[in-house]
Specification:
Length: 371
């Protein structure tokens, strides 16, 4: 069978459901090689990638005849085309591999036609495509507790969200990446934003509080905008990522893309802060970048970001400190000096005020690896 669209994998899936002993050889176009990991999920013996080499074709056909003669189900021969494939996704059952492959392509912006979305709905539960993306990262406060009690943070996070949202969100989808996970679902049509959807927003906060209180799991969620048009959902993914990394408007643990200022002048100032945050920045120095008086700039900055200029700059420094604590062996004294804090003690006190933990306590936590 020739694989011309991702939906052709669904056709193979249905054939295999009806006849497990049927031998199917997918012939896949180069532009769809990223979907080839589905052949493993479908337990296919092999596949061919265009252009097909004669010796490879004959070898695989012979292997299929031998498998039939031995009454064996055979196994997928991955080695022959390994260099042509981009393996992705996880093992699943029934339609799970198709759901994951479709959603990942949707978030990468690789789906360009409504027809493919319509076809994909046949293997999405409820035939509904998600319209919002939440970007999730976090750490475990007491790694020894996780090891002692035998639970795994990614599973606990998913279970808590499923339990909390199940009463009014029929289907939640989770896609794990290495250092983050995305959660997708469908916000009711009457709600233009998760931020203003009372039940959804409250549920988010309850999950965050429960994870921290019961398991010592601290998660930080960036929420993208709602997109009713499925082909635009990849924008929500990028927005969620940006919201996660932007200083908070209200809460550190839950940030919405809609909260980020769209004012072009302030965006220019924010970029300037991002490049010069280790320096002794003054509000006058930044206001001068857009030719505004200090009083007016201060009022505008507070209105658009929800935070004072001093708070914002300090938070940017703390974000960098978090990365240095996690990924380097620099001492607390060295980090304080690099980020422009007057003394290590002042840095430690400021870090705890913003992060809720001291630098040494944070360094002892474990970053959650989702995949």
């Amino acid at each position: 069978m020739e694989i011309r669209t991702p939906f052709d994998w669904v056709r193979i899936h249905r054939i295999r459901k009806r006849n497990r002993e049927c031998r199917v050889f997918p012939l896949i176009c180069p532009e769809l090689l990223h979907t080839s990991s589905l052949a493993i999920e479908l337990e296919l013996q092999s596949l061919f990638a265009k252009p097909v080499k004669k010796n490879l074709f004959i070898r695989n056909i012979k292997r299929a005849f031998e498998s039939l003669a031995n009454e064996s189900t055979g196994s997928f021969n991955y080695k022959d085309i390994y260099e042509q494939m981009q393996a992705e996704g996880r093992a699943g059952q029934d339609d799970a591999p198709f759901q994951e492959a479709f959603l990942r392509r949707l978030l990468r912006g690789e789906i360009s036609t409504e027809q493919e979305v319509i076809e994909a709905r046949t293997f999405l539960p409820g035939a509904a495509v998600p319209n919002i993306v939440c970007f999730i990262q976090g750490f475990v406060r007491f790694p020894e507790q996780e090891e002692k009690e035998g639970w795994q943070a990614p599973t606990v996070i998913q279970d808590c969200f499923l339990e909390e949202f199940s009463s009014y969100v029929p289907h939640l989808f989770f896609l794990p990446y290495r250092k983050h996970m995305v959660m997708l679902f469908r916000v009711p049509s009457a709600c233009a934003s998760l931020r203003y959807w009372k039940e959804g927003h409250a549920s988010m906060l309850r999950v965050i509080d429960r994870l921290e209180g019961e398991y010592g799991i601290h998660i930080y969620v960036g929420v993208g905008s709602v997109y009713r048009e499925p082909l635009l959902l990849h924008h929500s993914y990028r927005e969620g990522r940006k919201a996660r990394r932007t200083p908070p408007y209200e809460r550190l643990s839950l940030r919405y893309y809609e909260e980020i200022t769209k004012d072009e002048q302030l965006q220019k100032c924010i970029e300037y802060i991002g490049k010069h945050y280790t320096e002794n920045l003054s509000v006058g120095q930044v206001a001068a970048q857009i030719n505004l008086s200090v009083p007016y700039f201060s009022r505008l900055f507070k209105k658009e970001t929800g935070r004072s200029f001093v708070y914002y700059v300090t938070f940017v420094r703390i974000q960098r400190a978090v990365w240095l604590l996690r990924h380097t062996n620099l001492t607390i004294e060295q980090i304080a000096e690099e980020l422009g804090f007057n003394t290590p003690n002042y840095f430690s006190c400021t870090f705890k005020k913003y992060a809720g933990l001291s630098p040494s306590e944070y360094r002892a936590t474990k970053e959650i690896i989702f995949l």
